[in-house]
Design a protein that fits this description.
- It is found in: Cytoplasm.
- Its EC number is 5.3.1.1.
- It comes from Rhizobium leguminosarum bv. trifolii WSM597.
- One of its GO terms (cellular component) is cytosol.
- Keywords: Cytoplasm, Gluconeogenesis, Glycolysis, Isomerase.
- By secondary structure, the chain is α/β, with parallel strands linked by helices.
- It has one domain: TIM Barrel (Alpha-Beta Barrel).
- Helices cover 43% and strands 16% of the residues.
- It has helices at 18-28, 41-51, 77-83, 93-98, 103-115, 128-132, 136-147, 175-193, 210-217, 234-246, and strands at residues 4-8, 34-38, 56-60, 87-90, 119-124, 157-161, 201-205, 224-227.
- The site of phosphoenolpyruvate (PEP) has 13 residues, from strand 8.
Length: 247
C-alpha cells in the first residue's frame, strides 16, 4: 500500500512559516509516498497555492459537520474543498478533550468531509489509564465502530491510531502493541467496510520523528504516520517522509 505521511502543525505557524512548506517541496522531491501538510486555517489558502505543481498536498485540522449557516468561527468541509484542500484531520484527541468532540460528532464530520470530496483522517486512541486497565483495543474498537461512515473506502478514509499518552511525550508503544492495535483496526475496517476495509490506510501517530520512523514503517499494517511536533521543521519532516520511501 502507498504510504501516507501527514504533518499536523496544530496551532503553530505564521505567514513566515510558509518557508517550511517551500523548503519541503525541495526536500521531498518526487515522493513515492503521499505527503500532506495540515497547517492552521489561516495558512491553508496560501499553502494550497504554494504546493501547486509539487507532490505535496494540503489538509485542514478540523471541519464543521454542516455545510453552511450560523456557526460562528467554524469552517465547513465544503469551504476547505473550495480552496483546494485535500484532507481533513477529524477527532484528534486534543479536539476530543478541549472541545468535547465525541464519536458521533466525528462521524457527522466525516460524512460531511466525504460529501465535499475530502479525505478524512479519523483519529482514534486510548489514554494511558485505559491501556493500563487492559482496555486499549476495546476503546479503539468502540471509537472506530461509532465514527467510521458507512460506504467509506480507501479513497475517502484514513485512520490514525494515536495513543493519547504518546502524543507529544516522546513515548512510543512497543512494536508488538502497535502491530496488535493496527491488526485489530484492520479487522474492524473489514467488518464495517468489507473488501474496502483492506485499502484504508492506517497511520501510526505519537512522537514519530526521523530517528524512529523507519522502524515504525516496517511494522505490519502501519501505512504511514500522523506527525505533530516533527512536522514543524521541513528537514525533520522530510526525513520522516524519506523513511517511508525507503522502508
Ligand atoms: C499529533 O498531535 O497528531 C501527534 C502525533 O503529535 P506528536 O507527533 O508531536 O506526538
Amino acid at each position: 500500500m502507498r504510504k501516507l505521511i501527514a504533518g499536523n502543525w496544530k496551532m503553530n505557524g505564521l505567514v513566515s512559516s510558509q518557508a517550511e512548506i517551500e523548503a519541503l517541496k525541495g526536500l521531498t522531491g518526487s515522493a513515492t509516498c503521499d505527503i500532506v501538510v495540515c497547517p492552521p486555517f489561516t495558512l491553508l489558502d496560501r499553502a494550497v497555492e504554494r504546493v501547486k505543481g509539487s507532490s505535496l498536498t494540503i489538509g485542514a485540522q478540523d471541519c464543521h459537520a454542516q455545510q453552511s449557516g450560523a456557526h460562528t468561527g467554524d469552517i465547513s468541509a465544503e469551504m476547505l474543498a473550495d480552496i483546494g484542500a485535500h484532507y481533513v484531520i477529524l477527532g484528534h484527541s486534543e479536539r476530543r478533550v478541549a472541545h468535547g468532540e465525541d464519536d458521533a460528532m466525528v462521524l457527522e464530520k466525516a460524512v460531511a468531509a466525504h460529501q465535499a470530496g475530502l479525505i478524512s483522517i479519523v483519529c482514534v486512541g486510548e489514554t494511558r489509564h485505559e491501556r493500563d486497565e487492559g482496555r486499549a483495543i476495546k476503546v479503539v474498537d468502540k471509537q472506530l465502530r461509532a465514527s467510521v461512515p458507512e460506504g467509506a473506502t480507501g479513497q475517502t478514509l484514513v485512520i490514525a491510531y494515536e495513543p493519547v499518552w504518546a502524543i507529544g511525550t516522546g513515548l512510543v508503544p512497543t512494536n508488538e502493541q502497535i502491530e496488535e492495535m493496527h491488526a485489530a483496526i484492520r479487522q474492524v475496517l473489514q467488518e464495517r467496510l468489507g473488501s474496502d476495509g483492506h485499502s484504508v490506510r492506517i497511520l501510526y501517530g505519537g512522537s514519530v520523528k526521523a530517528s524512529n520512523a523507519e522502524a515504525l514503517f516496517r511494522l505490519r499494517n502501519v501505512d504511514g504516520a500522523l506527525v505533530g511536533g516533527a512536522s514543524l521543521k521541513a528537514s525533520e519532516f522530510a526525513a520522516v517522509t524519506l523513511a517511508a520511501q525507503t522502508s
